[in-house]
Every structure is written in structure tokens, then in C-alpha cells.
Design goal:
The chain has 296 residues and is of the alpha/beta class. The protein has a single domain, classed as Ribokinase (UDP-N-acetylmuramoyl-L-alanine:D-glutamate ligase, 3-Layer(aba) Sandwich). It is built from 13 helices and twelve strands. The strands form two sheets. Strands 1-12-11-10-9-8-7-2-3-4 form a ten-stranded mixed β-sheet, with helices on both faces. Strands 5-6 form a two-stranded antiparallel sheet. Helix 1 packs parallel to helix 10, helix 5 packs parallel to helix 7 and helix 11 crosses helix 13. It is globular and about 45 Å long.
Length: 296
Amino acid sequence: MEELKKEDIKCIFPKRDENSNKGNFGYVGIMGGCIEYSGAAKLANLSCASLTAGCGVVRLIVPKEIASGVMPYLLEQTLFTIESKNGHMIFNKDKIDKSLEKLKAIAIGMGWGESKDNEKILRYILETKDIPVIIDADGLNALAKMDKSTLNRTKCKVILTPHLKEFERISGYSLEDIKNNPQELAIKFAKEYNAILLLKGHTTTVTDGETTYLVKRGCAGMATAGSGDVLSGMLVGLLGYNEPNVLTVAAGSYLAGLAGELAQKDLNDISMRASDTISKIPEAINDIRKQIKIEK
């Protein structure tokens, strides 16, 4: 167990060949949204975070009923809709299969709401696909209602990004025990369920049960709606062109925290929004890469 340092993650942000195209840096997907979050501004921000973190293409996968609310927020992103009822996705095997075509990784759950079909969709992906899957927010709520042994059977590389209360729900550990032993319980859970766990906190723990990094970046200004969505966006963006391992996930946490710190420095801890963190991703990457010789 060690504190993650800037020099540990420079390899995640390598110099790019001039003779590159978007396909070199990965298609990634973001699946979420429901009628309660019909504007889907959070999801749009999340897809912006993915692109700014360096992936080639983002596919935003949402219920068909909220497509008109999402489209005004999209510029560089692509949109894929899934049939819905009462503003929530309906499980449709063929549509789910098509939504995942060409993807290097997917993030699931942001703004997804509560629906039995969410559980069906998540279970189907975990049981039938072989793709890195970030599960966050309402995706974690769906997972908490499922048989977690699915995590031991899946071919997916599963990355879970809970805060303490979400970790209580998916793990069965008490909140008090988690607060008292966050690293120990995170390692135990990750090892038992063959997952990468990013347990958010003042010190964020990122572990696959064998290797553990402590990420001590971030600031009070990030305690605002959408910050977790932005983190998931950065993570899936990095997975477009990096291996789905514990170092890549820890690098995403470090990048998000550093970008947040830079935003708070320019603004203040009261006025920051999650989108301010996105705006500082390029500066944060420059800071991480500053010892790398970048030549034309």
C-alpha cells in the first residue's frame, strides 16, 4: 500500500504519434440517464470529461424518451438511444448488444435512476460481455440488489467507484466499520469479488486486492453535484487507450483530484461546480506530463 505520486502515472499520458486517428484512442460508452434527470447535463459533462481525458470517441447511451433533453448538450459526442418506458431504459438484448459494439470500455449508472430493468441490463452485460465496466451511482444501487457472485463469474473487468455509503450497500459491511477500516475492507472486497475498487474519501483507496494505491488529491470545492460523474467520465476516457488495471484507475482518481484543486485555486471552495473540474483537466495533464519531453 503506497501513496500515489505524480511520477507514478506519467506513463498513462504518453506522447501521441502525429500519424494517429480517433480509433487509436478508443471508443468508450456512457450508459445512464432517466426521466428524473431528463436534461442529462451531468451525463453531457461526463462525456466531455471522457473526451478531455483523451479517448477518441464517446457514445452516450440513454433512454429514447430523454434524447431530446440530451442532444442540446452534445457536440463532439455520439448518441445511442434504447427503448424506454416512463423515462427508464427497457431491457432489450439486441439494443444492448448494438450499443456496446466497438467499445473499449463503458461506464454505467450515472443518472440512471431506479428500475428493475437496470438490474437486468447490468446483469446481462456482466454475464455475457468481455469489456471493462465502470459501475457508479445508480449502477451501484442496481448491483447492491443483485447476486454479487456474478462479479466472480463475469469476463468483464469490473471497476467499482463507491462513496462510503454506496460501499456499505454493495458490501454488507457497516458504515462504522468502513470508516474505521477503509483500506482493509476495500482490499478484502476487491480480492473476494475480483474487482478494482475505488473507494472515495478524503484519502481515496484504489485496489484490486493485491496492489493498493492511496490517492491524496482533491479539495472541498469538489463536494458538489456531478463530481462523481466527472470522475467516472475521466476513468472511462483513460480506459479508451490504457490497460484496465489498478494503476490506470488510480491515475484517473489523481487526475480528477488535481484538476479539482486547480479549479478551486482559480475560483474558491464555495463557488466550484463539477464542470469547473472538467475545464482544468488539460492543465492537470500538462502538470503530470511536465517532465516528459514533448517534441514536434
